[in-house]
Structure to design on (995 residues):
């Protein structure tokens, strides 16, 4: 049977097929869209401390949602796609943030198949209560109750009754709660803390020294009054002791209730209340109904703290501790005990879950040593642990947010989703560190590259001794510890990050430090870990407070000292009055000291970020070594290394593998159908000493038979000349220079350099140096390194570079050792000239060498060109700055519309004209009467005063020889007479004026 569609049926069928095809395409695209994320806002009622009457969250027993002793915790629950059970993740926020700080990551994890709960910790966001710095009976207890709630959610996978499959992640303050949760609650299955602390006492009181600026920032952040939204939230329903639906409907202090739809609930009992939420559900509970009537208020709500008392949202005992230490300037045993009890280190033996430790390299608040201590404790427990050192930290730099989020997801995928099946999920290397890599050519920014190893090397791996020298030194701790030295400044991360390019904030106050230096390194040294050194310290006081740091010093002190990551390690040395030998452990770093650089150990008496003794004192410091230092003293700086930590080569794109084959095919095609390149003509012996001769040179524009960029150009350049190639835009100057360099071929004519015809790759081009259309440099390398790489690329012997001679002519000086990204425009131009001068070419070609330079730099460039030609070499310079050409060049070639207009010595070209300068003796200006007499002479068109005498314009009927006797007859005191015309005037005349 055959169907034939005609007319309207055909069109209708086509339309139907088009609609179906379009629908199928839309469905396919829609199927690839990420699932929508559902957010459910919750408010939990928590007891003020774990000893309170209410031990449940959302459905347990207690005094009611808003009664005495209650704290409200604001939270959000995120899910996406499907209704099956899935692992849960708790996401904590940083200090000063709230649940909104981590909303983006929460939504992404929800799309990745997790049930995610975020919350604002006590005293932050809309949560009430006092900040306890992750107190076990307060913030940690809150997290345990949140896990209780997750265990009751139908979306969450369970490992057992009341035991959800759950991971905890967060940064800084939230990272610490992840560690603490794993220590206090065995239901936590995996954690991924970032840039956080292991021992808060060690972080804020390192080696007995008070970290005053960071501590001050902590307490000022938490001392700005009641938490956001407390007043606005009064009376709102919470999930507390009374019944509460999953939407957040809540009854009063005692009773039961249900919530549905938009989440309204009612309750009965001694007190009553209402609540609202965004979900649906039911709940029931009982309580003792101890509210006083109406809506109860927590302690934090009933009496919000006055910010003038200095405590704000902090617990009173934390405030008292801070004020006591801030006044004393040093920590005490009680302060250490208080902070240690709230630190993950207090439960070190209980944390046995898989842990991904992500710590920042630029972090003076929680440095790498905190993650190292955590790693050692967790590995002792047998827990799987990976360590990741990211580029940034609390002091700035790249936090690598996207990469760490991906790695956290992979970590949870393995240990939460795949039931610890390591074959199915790659969680990354055991150790990874982000380092500076290649430079992005589009913006000059340094790209990060990762180096990794199969095991974490620690901070003391494979130390390499570096000998230091220096005698015993005396230095002062000034009264009031002012002015202080500077290592880093909390809160100005962008400036702190500049230390990597030698422009950071690090500064040591004169007379307040001792320093010991090494010899220049023979080979590069990559340090990964914490350097150590043994020194002997003396003091006129009982205690000495010192700050130890290691600088990277460039060759010959040509650049600003670099303090890696801006880190210093503080030490309080007791018993220093009698002299004491101590081993100093510097901050952990990952830094490469380049060959030729020196290491400098500095011991400073003050540091802006820390508290130093206010009483003046005098310190002494000397190195302790193996006695090989001789009369200058000596010691060893042990620099840890990690040779097994290597950077993986970036995978090559697919096209690089196909490129050789494609090149071979192209070569075959060229051999088969291409034109054979014309053979270079034999050298002309008569031109062997002539730097350049151009004869009948022509070049048409592409796809044009009669439009020329250069047409029938001929000129000759001799040794020792500085030739200026002039012409307006479009005159053909750059095209001529490109043909001269063999970059493009002429359509007619020839170019001979020292008698050799120019062709692409002609050997004689080794005698030519050029700077045409700008030069490109690698900005992260020094000027010297750029020149070395350029010369190596030529394949010529190093001794032929004559680098020192070229540099002396260019006059770069010590700037040659600095990174090119720190150069001014003038220095870049001079570096480009030096590059063109490598090998001391006999013919130097410069295209707009003074472009972008200021007047002093232009004068320096002029001197460079004149000095270079003075040695018998030849310079060709193309420029639009006619005044500079007039002062620099000996000869000119003027082009216009691709053709030669004029060539010859500068004096000849400038000297032809109808205006004469009559110089007169004495400094007195000519009288008006005498000026009128000169203007009335035969053949004179005009006469005007000039600074040097008189400018006389001829009308063409007389000459200089006839004019001179007439001037003498008028008793004009003539000292000299000659043509007067600027190059600009001559140039405009030759090219046709102002067109």
């Amino acid at each position: 049977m055959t169907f034939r569609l005609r007319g309207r049926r055909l069109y209708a069928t086509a339309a139907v097929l088009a609609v179906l095809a379009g629908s199928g395409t839309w469905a396919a695209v829609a199927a690839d869209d990420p699932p929508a994320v559902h957010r459910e806002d919750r408010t939990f009622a928590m007891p003020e401390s774990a000893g309170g009457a209410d031990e449940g969250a959302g459905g347990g027993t207690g005094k009611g949602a808003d009664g005495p002793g209650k704290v409200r915790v604001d939270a959000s629950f995120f899910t996406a796609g499907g209704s099956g059970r899935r692992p849960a993740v708790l996401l904590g926020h940083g200090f000063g943030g709230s649940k909104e700080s981590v909303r983006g990551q929460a939504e992404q994890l929800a799309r990745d198949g997790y049930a995610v709960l975020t919350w604002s910790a006590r005293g932050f966001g809309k949560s009430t209560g006092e900040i306890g710095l992750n107190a076990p009976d307060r913030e940690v207890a809150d997290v345990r109750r949140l896990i209780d709630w997750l265990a009751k959610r139908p979306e969450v996978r369970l490992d057992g009754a009341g035991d959800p499959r759950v991971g905890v992640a967060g940064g800084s303050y939230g990272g610490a709660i992840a560690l603490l949760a794993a220590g206090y609650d065995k239901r936590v299955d995996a954690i991924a803390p970032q840039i956080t602390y292991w021992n808060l006492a060690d972080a804020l009181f390192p080696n007995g020294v008070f970290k005053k600026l960071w501590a001050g920032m902590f307490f000022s952040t938490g001392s700005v009054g009641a938490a956001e939204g407390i007043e606005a939230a009064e009376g709102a329903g919470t999930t507390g002791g009374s019944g509460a639906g999953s939407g957040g409907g809540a009854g009063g202090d005692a009773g039961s209730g249900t919530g549905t739809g938009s989440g309204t609930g009612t309750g009965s009992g001694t007190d009553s209340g209402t609540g609202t939420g965004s979900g649906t559900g039911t709940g029931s509970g009982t309580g003792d109904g101890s509210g006083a009537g109406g809506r109860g208020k927590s302690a934090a709500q009933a009496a919000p703290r006055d910010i003038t008392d200095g405590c704000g949202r902090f617990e009173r005992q934390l405030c008292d501790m801070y004020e006591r230490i801030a006044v004393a300037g040093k920590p005490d045993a009680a302060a250490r005990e208080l902070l240690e009890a709230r630190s993950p280190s207090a439960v070190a033996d209980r944390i046995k879950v898989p842990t991904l430790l992500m710590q920042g390299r630029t972090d003076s608040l929680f440095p790498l040593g905190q993650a190292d201590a955590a790693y050692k404790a967790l590995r002792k427990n047998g827990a799987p642990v990976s360590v990741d050192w990211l580029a940034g930290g609390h002091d700035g730099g790249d936090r690598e947010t996207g990469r760490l989020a991906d790695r956290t997801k992979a970590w949870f995928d393995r240990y939460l989703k795949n039931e610890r099946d390591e074959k199915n999920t790659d969680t990354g290397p055991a150790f990874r560190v982000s380092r500076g890599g290649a430079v992005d050519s589009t913006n000059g920014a340094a790209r990060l590259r990762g180096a990794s190893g199969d095991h974490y090397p620690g901070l003391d791996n494979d130390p390499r001794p570096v000998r230091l020298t220096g005698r015993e030194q005396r230095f002062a701790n000034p009264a009031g510890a002012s002015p202080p030295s500077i290592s880093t400044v909390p809160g100005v991360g962008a400036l702190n990050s500049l230390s990597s390019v030698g422009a950071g904030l690090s500064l040591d106050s004169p007379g307040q430090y001792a320093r010991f230096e090494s010899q220049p390194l023979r080979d590069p040294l990559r340090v990964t870990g914490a350097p150590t050194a043994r020194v002997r310290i003396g003091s006129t006081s009982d205690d000495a407070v010192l700050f130890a740091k290691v600088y990277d010093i460039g060759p010959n002190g040509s650049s600003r000292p670099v303090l890696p990551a801006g880190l210093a390690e503080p030490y309080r040395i007791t018993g220093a009055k009698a002299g004491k030998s101590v081993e100093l452990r510097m901050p952990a770093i990952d830094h490469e000291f380049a060959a030729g650089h020196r290491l400098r150990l500095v011991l400073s008496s003050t540091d802006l970020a820390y508290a130093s003794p206010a009483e003046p004192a005098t310190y002494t410091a000397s190195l302790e070594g193996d006695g090989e230092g001789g009369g200058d003293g000596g010691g060893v700086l042990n620099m840890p290394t990690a040779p097994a930590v290597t950077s993986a080569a970036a995978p090559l794109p697919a096209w690089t593998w196909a490129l050789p084959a494609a090149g071979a095919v192209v070569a075959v095609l060229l051999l088969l159908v291409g034109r054979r390149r014309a053979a270079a003509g034999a050298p002309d012996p008569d031109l062997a000493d002539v730097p350049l001769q151009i004869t009948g040179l022509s070049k048409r524009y592409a796809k044009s038979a009669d439009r020329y960029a250069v047409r029938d150009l001929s000129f000759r350049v001799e040794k020792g000349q500085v030739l200026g190639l002039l012409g307006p835009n479009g005159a053909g100057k750059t095209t001529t220079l490109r043909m001269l360099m063999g970059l493009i071929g002429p359509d007619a004519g020839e170019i001979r350099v020292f008698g050799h015809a120019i062709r692409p790759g002609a050997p004689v081009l080794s005698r030519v140096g050029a700077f045409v259309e700008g030069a490109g440099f690698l900005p992260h390398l020094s000027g010297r390194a750029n020149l070395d790489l350029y010369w190596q690329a030529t394949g010529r012997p190093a001794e032929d570079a004559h680098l020192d001679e070229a540099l002396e002519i260019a006059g770069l000086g010590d700037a040659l050792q600095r990174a090119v990204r720190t150069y001014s425009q003038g220095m870049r131009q001079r570096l480009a000239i030096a590059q063109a001068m490598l090998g001391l070419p006999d013919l130097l070609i410069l295209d707009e060498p003074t472009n972008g330079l200021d007047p002093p730099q232009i004068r320096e460039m002029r001197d460079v060109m004149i000095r270079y030609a003075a040695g018998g070499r030849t310079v060709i310079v193309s420029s639009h700055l006619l005044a500079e050409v007039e002062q620099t060049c000996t000869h000119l070639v003027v082009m216009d519309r691709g053709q030669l207009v004029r060539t010859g010595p500068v004096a000849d070209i400038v000297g032809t004209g109808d205006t004469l300068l009559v110089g007169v003796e004495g400094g007195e200006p000519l009288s008006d009467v005498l000026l009128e007499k000169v203007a009335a002479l035969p053949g004179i068109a005009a006469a005007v005063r000039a600074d040097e005498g008189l400018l006389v314009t001829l009308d063409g009927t007389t000459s200089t020889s006839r004019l001179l006797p007439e001037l003498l007859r008028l008793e004009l005191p003539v000292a000299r007479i000659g043509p007067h015309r600027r190059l600009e005037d001559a140039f405009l005349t030759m090219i046709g004026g102002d067109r």
About this structure: The chain has 24 helices and 41 strands. The longest strand covers residues 37-47. The chain has a mean pLDDT of 79.
